[in-house]
Design brief:
With 387 residues, the chain is an all-alpha fold. It has one domain. 70% of the residues lie in helices and 0% in strands. Helix 4 packs across helix 17, helix 7 packs antiparallel against helix 8 and helix 8 runs antiparallel to helix 13.
Length: 387
């Protein structure tokens, strides 16, 4: 994406998400103390903010395609959508996975799951904390989301046919049922032995925290925003016309959710209701970011756009890089912390420009949109036949 076309508010939230994740991983795997205070302790919620962003951005692509039926009457193409997503997410991920597989120094001594789980994005099923490249669990949840949402949306459209109100009703009912199912599953799976204070238990992480069915809440919150934007334009306009109010409310609700989760993350109440609460809070922040008049949307914070652009590559590399650097530098010293932050940004920048960016250029050449080709149109990027 060209930087000039990026949305400043979304970039700020995306950069904030990777900062939260970095702070939490630094505490959990490098310094083993809350180096960045409460920001470290709640930093795991950065993943949930990424989920909300993905739910909105991917949902918006799908619903816009279904609503507008594409330029020149071309319809939404499921296979083009999959092709674009795979070219966006797989190259950098598989490059980093290859480092774990073929470079023993990078992999370290942690036990790894069966490699097919990494390759197929099923690592998060029955994942044990402390597994090699364990933070790929969130990428698994996102890839499963990318796989499931488009056919579900298309199926709802096919069932409803031309009856738009029925399709919308079915869509909202499906979304509400998915949120309720996640809450019900967490309530059913939770056991008193899972609540072990600030750290929780291994079983909590394996059964609830890493679970796809239990962690769709923020993704669905983003999808709800995309539905509002595409199918309820009047309501969307009213909401985004109060961007600063949304920002204030979203910040307040996020602060409340953070406080409650810091107090009792692994208890039954937060296990059941905490993730939907985060989803609502982050959805309000997203609304503020998408409201042209809001402070969040209008403010361009220096460096945030770059961090947002490289955030996926930073996410893939920062944890193991900092673990390895901690063998040579004292992780609690300010100079060491600054060095590891700089090294993480540099590694993300290198991976972005060496792997992500070239494959995105390939994507734009061969699969420039999610829409079907026109009749008799040659595949994009093909060589024209000689006259």
């Amino acid at each position: 994406m060209n930087r000039s076309s990026r949305v400043h508010g979304l970039d700020t939230l995306r950069a904030l998400a990777i900062m939260l994740v970095f702070a939490n991983h630094y505490m959990s795997f490098v310094s083993h103390e809350a180096t960045f205070g409460w920001f470290s302790e709640i930093g795991w919620a950065g993943v949930d903010l990424f989920f909300a962003l993905s739910g909105y951005l991917i949902g918006n692509q799908i619903f816009a395609g279904l609503r507008e039926d594409g330029p020149d009457g071309r319809g939404f193409s499921l296979w083009r959508f999959y092709g674009r997503r795979l070219l966006r997410t797989l190259p950098a991920y598989y490059f980093v996975l290859a480092l774990y597989v073929f470079w023993p120094y990078w992999a370290g001594s942690l036990p790894h799951a069966p490699w097919w789980k990494y390759l197929t994005f099923t690592l998060n099923f029955d994942l044990k904390p402390g597994t090699l490249f364990s933070h790929a669990w969130s990428l698994c949840v996102e890839e499963q989301f990318y796989l499931l949402l488009p056919p579900i949306a298309l199926a709802i459209g096919a069932i409803a046919g031309a009856r738009r109100r029925l399709a919308l009703g079915l869509g909202w009912a499906a979304l509400a049922a998915a949120v309720a199912a996640g809450m019900w599953l967490r309530a059913d799976w939770w056991q008193p032995s899972m609540d072990m204070g600030v750290r929780g238990s291994q079983r909590y992480y394996t059964l609830i925290y890493y679970s796809t069915l239990a962690r769709f809440d923020e993704l669905l919150a983003g999808v709800a925003l995309a539905m509002l934007r595409n199918f309820h334009p009047a309501l969307w306009q009213r909401l985004t016309s109060h961007g600063n109010a949304m920002l204030a409310a979203g910040a307040a609700l996020t602060a409340l959710a953070f406080w409650l989760l810091l107090e009792d993350h692994f208890g039954w109440q937060m296990a059941v209701f905490g993730y939907p609460l985060l989803g609502i809070a982050f959805a309000m922040l997203l609304l503020a970011a998408l409201s042209e008049g809001s402070l969040l949307a209008r403010t361009r914070i220096p460096g945030m756009g770059a961090i947002a652009l490289w955030s996926y590559s930073i996410y893939l590399t920062h944890k193991q890089l900092c673990i390895l650097l901690a063998e040579h530098f004292e992780p609690d010293r300010p100079a060491s912390i600054a060095l590891m932050i700089a090294a993480s940004i540099l590694a993300g920048w290198l991976l972005y420009f060496a792997v992500e960016a070239p494959f995105m250029k390939i994507r734009e050449r061969f699969i420039p949109s999610n829409y079907k080709r026109r009749p008799h149109e040659a595949p994009v990027g093909s060589v024209p036949a000689a006259p």
